[in-house]
Amino acid sequence: MKKTLRLLWSILTAPFKFAFWLTSIKDLFAVFRESVEEGSLPEAVNKVIDNPFSIMEHLSALRNNLVRAVLILAAATGLALYYNYYILDFLSKPIEGGIDALVAIDVTEPIGTVMRVALFAGFAVTFPYLAYQIWLFVAPAVISRRRRFFSLVAIPAATLLFAGGVLFAYYILLPRALPFLLNFMGIKTIPRPSSYITFTVGLMFWIGIFFEFPLVMLFSAALGWVKAEMLAQQWRLAIVIITVIAALITPTVDPVNMSLVAGPMIILYFFGVGLAFIGQGGRSLTKKPNS
Fold first, then answer.
1. Could you tell me which of 262, 183, 180, 274 has the C-alpha nearest to residue 221?
2. CA within 13 Å, CB half, 246
3. 281 and 194 share a domain?
4. Which pTM does this prediction carry?
5. φ, ψ at 190 (rounded to 5°)
């Protein structure tokens, strides 16, 4: 009888335990309780070398974060499949004629297009949760006195930056790039669903990821991986690198569209430098020689 009641209780409470596990409340509380002393990256590496088994706990935590992220992403992708037509119609609006202008050639092309759209939509919808899981893994490395501030800032900032990058690509970049590409040299191009969606989704995804760069600079400085002063001093090199990246990901070869990509990235770089100063506590990390 007791075994039956325990089994029944386990079945009834399983959904609540699973939901509790997905929300990672236990890990979040642990983040606020743990105390981390301030140190540099070489010191952390030396600790791992001295005690290699200490990293196993972090790898176990990373595994749990990845499993949660994959489960939520799979669920969101499945849900996006149900609304796939509306999402595809929305993504097709930047071209003249919308979804009706897309012409499939291969038999399996519509299926691959639908899966790609669903995966991107699932990723975009679950991005705050994915950022939350990343933060839970990174947070223990941030010293305690800064962790609460970053906990309040990290996920909303990451979500807003990614959304800003996606919207920038959709509303600013695509409407200016597509007419140029589809009518280059007077040759009218009939877009295929696979090529158009791969191009559109890829551009929106990578621009959204690049918009996360200021946040990466903030946490890199907070973890002691980089110095804000070094980032500020190397601004010329950063502009050159950004220009090269913009040239690689810009869908057209004209300087106007390349500037549309490079301009915001340069602004985001200097914004990231300011965040890096905040991340390292607003103080100089360069030791002054003793007089």
1. 274
2. 22
3. no
4. 0.77
5. -95, 110
**Contacts for 172-175: CB closer than 8 Å, 24+ residues apart:** 172/260, 173/203, 173/207, 173/251, 173/257, 173/260, 173/261, 174/94, 174/200, 174/203, 175/94
* 90 and 147 inside one domain: yes
Cβ contacts of 103 within 8 Å, gap of 6 or more: 190, 191, 192, 193
Residue type, 288: K
Could you tell me if 129 and 167 are in contact, meaning their C-beta atoms sit under 8 angstroms apart?
no
Read off the pLDDT of residues 139-159 as tens digits, 9 standing for 90 and up: 776 656 666 667 777 888 889
Which of 146, 126, 153, 128 lies closest to 31 in space, CA to CA? 146
Residues near 268 by Cβ (< 8 Å), separated by ≥ 6? 210, 211, 213, 214
Write the pLDDT tens digit of every residue in 213-261.
888 888 788 777 788 888 888 888 888 888 888 777 776 566 766 777 7
Q: Is residue 45 part of a domain?
A: no
- Where helices occur in 106-185 by DSSP H, the ranges are 109-138, 144-168, 174-182
203 with 217, same domain?
no
CA 145 from chain centre, in angstroms, equals: 25
